[in-house]
Amino acid sequence: MVFDVYRRKIDQLKSDGLYREFIPCGHLAEDPGQTLHHGRRVQVWCSNDYLGMSQHQDLIKIQSESTALHGTGNGGSRNIAGTSSTHVELEARLADWHGKERALIFSSGYVANFETLSTLIAAVPDLVVFSDALNHRSLIEGIVRSGCEKVVFPHNDVEALETALAAYGPDRPKLIVFESVYSMDGDCSPLTEILDLAERHNALTFLDETHAIGIMGATGAGLSEQLGDHRATFIQGVFGKAIGTVGGYVVGPDVAMDYVRSTAPGFIFTTALPKASMDATLRGLELVQTGNDLRRDLMANAEYLKARLRAENIDFIDAESHLVPVMVPGSDRVRRISQRLFAEFGIYVQPINFPSVPRGGERFRVTAPPYRTHEQIDRFVGALKQCLAED
């Protein structure tokens, strides 16, 4: 039986300690960072809602009012009555935010990466793609789906990238694909150096700003804005993290984005995001663009968390972003400690293991949004220290 194959593979995942558990949550708008699990309140310490925007009263009010007026869905794909006036306005604002000609909204950040890359790359004969070794799976899958020639260069290794680029003639079409902030280590790319190489070798660039959107730059437009370097050909971002709603987008040259709009299957044949969600996203974007206090408080909390971890001799990666990876090597150990934090302390932090990180590099990816207090951070670090010491 074919299902026996699936059962054996599931059993192997469990045996290897790689089986993923999903904890049902009911996040509480009245108490950001708290969730209900079978009636019990639990603090979430691994959320991607970096600024707490998903519980912002403005977004809740706007989405509720828009739902009452327009309904819960758009009734079709973007080309079959699914394009709302808010989709159009939001795309115009996103393009302007990033200084590009055109934006296109997708159902998720994963879909934005996969559909845009696979569509654009496949259209250009002989295009070769240079991909950072730690790129997100959505980027990797988009590149693979295109069937192009690809070169994977060591993470953030500018010299290796230059050597790889130099192996191809100046007339060979090239695309460099990389991220601004890498979520598993929390480190940033050498953005300007990579863009310098792209100019020197006549290469296009696709920059994933997922974990920098809302966090970096004077208006939260990402690492590009923070560095004042807007040369990336394409920029991808998401709504489901710092902006607090759902969806993803890509901005870039008009003709290229129009081609994706016209031919990408995952755009054409999927139901459009509801207008109510897009209305809330538009407000979330406005708040993020003026959210310097939120960005300041987020980074201050990250620094306080690192100081407390350092004081307790808890191993973590001291990266330059708001993400704090706490190292807990061993797939069984990281899972045990996660379970104990949840059961005994009411703390939810998801274990991260292979293939998201290398074996032996298991960790918790901790975030401390602006609503977190020093007392809460102290309690989290204390509970983590106890669990690590007693395991």
UniProtKB/TrEMBL annotation:
Reactions catalysed, as given in the entry: 6-carboxyhexanoyl-[ACP] + L-alanine + H(+) = (8S)-8-amino-7-oxononanoate + holo-[ACP] + CO2
InterPro entries attached to this UniProt entry: 4pyrrol_synth_NH2levulA_synth, Aminotransferase_I/II_large, AON_synthase_class-II, PyrdxlP-dep_Trfase, PyrdxlP-dep_Trfase_major, PyrdxlP-dep_Trfase_small
Cofactor(s) it depends on: pyridoxal 5'-phosphate
Pfam families: Aminotran_1_2
Keyword entries, A-Z: Acyltransferase, Transferase
GO molecular function: 5-aminolevulinate synthase activity
Protein name: 8-amino-7-oxononanoate synthase
Gene name in the database record: hemA
